[in-house]
Amino acid sequence: MPPIVAAIVVVLTALGTSAATAAVLAPFILSIGASLVMGGISKLITKLSTSSPSITSTVASRTVTTRQSVAPRHVFYGSNRSGGIITFMHTTGTKNEKLHIVITLSGHEVQAIPAMYFDGIAVPLDGSGNATGNFAGFVHAEFNLGRKTQASFPGLVAAAPAYWTSAHQQRG
User: Fold this and answer.
1) Which residues contact 110 (CB under 8 A, 6 or more apart)?
2) Which residue intervals of 18-113 are DSSP H helices?
3) Nearest Cα to 98, choosing from 40, 140, 142?
4) Torsion of CA 131, 112, 55, 69, to 10 degrees
5) Are 150 and 144 in contact (CB under 8 A)?
6) pLDDT value of residue 31
7) pTM exceeds 0.85, yes or no
8) Helix or strand or coil: residue 24?
9) CA–CA separation, 100 vs 155, rounded Å?
């Protein structure tokens, strides 16, 4: 008999159980005890691993634009709603009242960028990239799709030529 089973048999016989009954009950008691211990360890491991993001939070965070020095490269197939990575940020104006942000959505060419959202609210744009509705006068957007022949953002080159030049084309 293994030493743990023998110890359980000794305890059961000391409590007044016959040796034959103790020999039958000992493996059963050992398996219940082992199950309880393993269950406790499993709960502990589960609690420790809940700090990792769930699939729900991972999917929800895809629509958030972040600023990172090193970021994963996004690859899109079909229609997607996604946040991007801020790759350039600069202010201009006499009181720094104009904020210029370049948000990179993917590391490859895309077919279209049909909409832009601020805090989950669609920003309607006119044909020249100026916002209409609640964001009128506050937002101007320029889009490049990552084509190999695309030029740099002309509005940004004009507004901040020392920081964003015609060489900043973000092709591909």
Assistant:
1) 76, 145, 146
2) 19-49, 55-61
3) 140
4) -80
5) yes
6) 85
7) no
8) helix
9) 10
Residues 92 and 158: beta-carbon distance below 8 Å: no
Exposure letters 58-87 (e unless 16+ CB within 10 A, then b): eeeeeeeeeeeeeeeebeeeeeeeeebbee
CA of residue 161 relative to chain centroid, distance: 34
> Is 39 in the same domain as 71?
no
CA nearest 76: which of 117, 108, 122? 108
Structural domain of residue 17, as residue ranges? 3-49
Q: Are residues 44 and 74 in the same domain?
A: no
Query: Does residue 61 register a pLDDT over 60?
Result: no
pLDDT in tens, 90-140: 999 999 999 999 998 888 888 888 888 888 889 999 988 999 999 999 999
Residue 37 sits in the same domain as residue 67 = no
